[in-house]
Input
Amino acid sequence: MRRHQTFALLIALFFAVIFSSGELPAQTPGKPVALPPAQIAPLLPASFAGWEAQAPATPVTQAAQADAANTAALVEYGFSDGLQSEYTRDGATLKIKALRFVDATGAYGAYSFYRHSSWPKVEVGSGGASDNNRVLFWVGNIVIDAEFQRVSAMSASELRVLAKTLPMPAGNKSLAPPILAYLPTKQMDPQTTHYALGPIGYVGPPGLSSPYGVLPPQLVGFDRGAEVATATYTLQSNPATLTLIDYPTPQMAAAQEKAIVAYLKAGDSPQHPFTKPLQESNPKALEVRRSGPIVAIVSGDAIQDESLKLLGLVHYEADTSSLPGGGVNPVQNFAKLIIGIIVLVVVMFVVALIVALFLGGGRAAFRVMRGKPASSLYDEDFTRLDLRD
Output
C-alpha cells in the first residue's frame, strides 16, 4: 500500500513540475526570448520568386540613412534597423528597402505615414498599397518599400512570396495598434487610415495637399502619451473624417476633450487659426465625444445627424483583458501559479490515496474471503531472514 502511495505522489510531483514550467514564461511577457542564431531569419533573403540579389544587402542603422527627409517621423515610430538590396531577374531590376521597427505598432504607423490615401490597395502582407511601380506593405514589425523597374501581373504574387520569408516578432510586438479596433468599419475607406505616435507622423510627409491630422498637433497632447488614428468615411450626405485620440487615462482624455471643444467653439480666428481640414469642414459637422480614454472628433462636410451617428459607433470597452496587448501583472500571475500547483498536488494526493486504498483494501478483502489473514505477513510461505547472532 505504501508503495502505491509513493508512486502516486511521485506522479503528482512530476505533473506539478510540468505545469509550473508551462506557466512561468507568462510572468515576464515583455522579455524577448533569445533564439539560437540558426533560428533567426534574415531581414531580406538572397533570392525569392526568381529574383536574385546582386550583392550583399546594405545595412541601415540610422533613421537618417533610411529616409533623410522623414527622419523625425521614423524616430517617432520607433525605427530600429533595416536593409537595402537590389535584385535582378531577366534583365529587370527591383530595389527593396526593408525597415524594421520596435514593434508592429510602429511598423503600421510608418506604413500609414508613407502610404497616401489615394494609393490603390494591394493584397500583400498585412496590408499593402501601390503607386505605379512602387509597392509598399507591412508585415509584423517590418515595412517593405519595393520599387520595380517594370510592374507585371505577377508582381504582387512575387512580393507575397517575399512577405512569407520575413521574420516575425514574438509576443505583443506582433500586434497592430489596439486603437484601430475602435474605428467603425461601416462606410470606412480602409486605404485612408493613418496612425500617429507624434506630431510629425500626425501631420504627414512634406508636400501633402492636406495634412493627415485634423487638429493642430499641439492640441492633441502627444507629450501626454496620446496615440491618434484617423480614417475617412463615405456617408450619404458627404465624406467625413473620424479622429480617435487614445490617452493613457480617462482623466487625461476628459481634460483634453474640454480643450478641444473650446478650440472648435472659438471658431477660426487669427488668435486661434483652424487647420486646413477644419477650414474645409462644415461647422455643423464638427462634433466631439469621449468614451473612456478615447476622444473622438468628426470633421468634414457631412450633416450633423450623420456626424452624431458616426460618433455613436465609437465605444470603449472597459474590459481590457480581451484587448490585444492588455496589461499583465507578474505578481498576480505568480500567485495564481503557486495556488494552481498547490491545488494540483492536493488533488493528485487525494487521487493517489483513493487508488491506494482501493488496491490495498481490495487485496486484503480478497484474502479474507479466501480464509487467509488480511496481511501476507502471516503467510506460512513468507520468507524471513534472521541475521542476528
